[in-house]
């Protein structure tokens, strides 16, 4: 590492290479603070060419590297390696081009999600995917996680909004993956690859036209079951709102304590439904929505942008707010079909009671994307283990109901052990082959996503010798 660090210093400006043990600790974890490691060295390149040179050096020295944007990830994806280099993109924050005629923006990876919208808002445009961390999370991190957000129900995830990516491949080449390229959808493979297939250095994103009308509604129900039924009924009626979010009583209690959002008192669940589009369509959908939510004991409609922001305030601050009602918590992220929501929520409640662990629910209800917040007191012996058990059992529930172990926070280091519950050995081996094709040396973010990382050349890997199908004359090798 010492020789490598000296070489890094010759490549980058002095203040872009961090080795001071105290400063290194700033980078020891992402938003999942349970996993920590002090990086061997941290670099803050300012250009794509510098990223490429750092990666080439890592290859020369056979040293692993991990990309980091803003470190808000919730699955330990940016957890550094003690024997590796952490490549942080926070100095790469330029918006390089805005092309409203083609509805595109070209940005560096460290640009924050919200900064893109802020750059085009006055012209009537915005960038649609909106993770609740959007004020700080980087677009490079969004690409790596295929991030979602409240408005992804109608508009799709990051993958639907990225047109092209310049990347530094794991062996240090600078290449561009474009949606328009014929052949395999390599851009599709890269988006959501959690830093294991290379580092994004320039991203072309789609810009959307701001809708003519936005109507934001807060519906308060006595129980979470009633809220869940309303969600199914809204979608069943053919309405695709821009967002449908739900919070249960415990999540509301936390949000009230943190940001005094003034949600209706005594609510067992609140739904936030946002309708957007042409005025006539929104008016018609709102009339339907009012009928569907007739069981709500209060229905608030935001009269202006300030009231809309007030409704969203409680939801957007919900994760952090939980710190007000519990000393420690695990943010879980799983998906179930929407119709399974009431059953799964009831099962989570049973798990919570069995293990004496409180669970607050706040989630993207329209997508069936649950974010149970599993609360525990880390000073109480055994509470952390019980919370882990509940958290894992929730993922089993999601799989049993035909869902997934992650909706938008990624697998990272946290959920790699759950991958075999969803995928067979063959599935995992096939994914490893893709990884090996991009990263034959296994240096890009190793130890993430897969439970048993294999080196390329081991099984699975490049076959040594003639394939039996070729030998039998059934296939031909070119
Ligand atoms: C309060 C809060 C709310 C959140 N709400 C949401 C939400 O609503 N929806 C949602 O989807 N997520 C949400 N998240 C999770 C998180 O913000 C997203 O996953 C986000 O995309 C991470 O971006 P980042 O810049 O912080 O990435 P980091 O945490 O720094 O990194 C995340 C992963 O991306 C990789 N990476 C980073 N930059 C690059 C790059 N340039 N090239 C290749 N790989 C890279 C890292 O190696 C790592 O694997 C939330 C997090 C918090 C703390």
Automatic annotation (TrEMBL):
User: Recorded GO terms, molecular function?
Assistant: FAD binding; oxidoreductase activity
UniProt keyword list: FAD, Flavoprotein, Oxidoreductase
Q: What are the FAD-binding PCMH-type domain coordinates in residue numbering?
A: 35-210
What is any Pfam family matched here? FAD-oxidase_C
Query: Cofactor(s) for this protein?
Result: FAD
The protein here is known as FAD-binding protein
Q: What is the lineage of its organism?
A: Bacteria, Bacillati, Actinomycetota, Actinomycetes, Streptosporangiales
């Amino acid at each position: 590492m010492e020789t490598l660090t000296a070489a890094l210093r010759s490549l980058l400006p002095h203040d872009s290479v961090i080795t001071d043990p105290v400063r290194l600790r700033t980078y020891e974890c992402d938003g999942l603070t349970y996993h920590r490691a002090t990086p061997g060295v941290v670099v803050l390149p300012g250009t794509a060419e510098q990223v490429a040179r750092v990666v080439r050096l890592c290859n020369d020295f056979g040293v692993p590297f991990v990309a980091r944007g803003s470190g808000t990830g919730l699955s330990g994806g940016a957890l550094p390696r003690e024997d590796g280099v952490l490549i942080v993109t926070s100095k790469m924050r330029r918006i390089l081009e805005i092309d409203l005629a083609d509805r595109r923006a070209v940005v560096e990876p460290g640009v924050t999600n919200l900064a893109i919208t802020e750059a085009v808002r006055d012209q009537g445009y915005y960038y649609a995917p909106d993770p609740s961390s959007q004020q700080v999370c980087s677009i490079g991190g969004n690409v790596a996680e295929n991030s979602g957000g409240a408005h992804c129900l109608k508009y799709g995830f990051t993958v639907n909004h990225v047109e092209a990516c310049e990347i530094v491949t794991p062996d240090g080449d600078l290449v561009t993956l474009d949606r328009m390229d014929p052949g395999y959808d390599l851009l599709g493979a890269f988006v959501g690859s959690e830093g294991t297939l290379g580092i994004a250095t320039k991203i072309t994103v789609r810009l959307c036209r701001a809708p003519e009308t936005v109507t934001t509604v807060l519906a308060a129900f006595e129980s979470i079951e009633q809220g869940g039924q309303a969600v199914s009924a809204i979608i069943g009626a053919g309405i695709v709102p821009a967002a449908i979010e739900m919070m249960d009583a415990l999540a509301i209690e936390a949000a009230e304590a943190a940001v005094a959002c003034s949600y209706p008192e005594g609510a067992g669940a609140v739904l936030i439904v946002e309708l957007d589009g042409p005025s006539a369509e929104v008016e018609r959908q709102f009339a339907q929505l009012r009928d569907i939510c007739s069981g709500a004991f209060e229905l608030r409609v935001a009269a202006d942008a300030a009231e809309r922001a007030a409704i969203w305030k409680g939801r957007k601050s919900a994760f952090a707010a939980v710190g007000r009602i519990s000393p420690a918590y695990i943010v879980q992220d799983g998906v179930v079909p929407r119709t399974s929501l009431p059953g799964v929520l009831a099962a989570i409640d049973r798990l919570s009671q069995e293990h004496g662990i409180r669970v607050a629910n706040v989630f993207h209800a329209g997508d069936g994307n649950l974010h149970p917040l599993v609360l525990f007191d880390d000073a109480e012996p055994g509470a952390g283990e019980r919370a882990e058990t509940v958290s894992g059992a929730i993922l089993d529930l999601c799989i049993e109901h035909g869902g997934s172990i992650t909706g938008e926070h990624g697998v990272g280091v946290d959920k790699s052990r759950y991958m075999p519950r969803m995928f067979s050995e063959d599935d995992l081996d096939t994914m490893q082959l893709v990884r090996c094709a991009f990263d034959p040396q296994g240096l890009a973010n190793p130890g993430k996503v897969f439970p048993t990382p294999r080196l390329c050349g081991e099984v699975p890997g490049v076959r040594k010798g003639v394939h039996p199908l070729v030998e039998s004359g059934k296939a031909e090798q070119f």
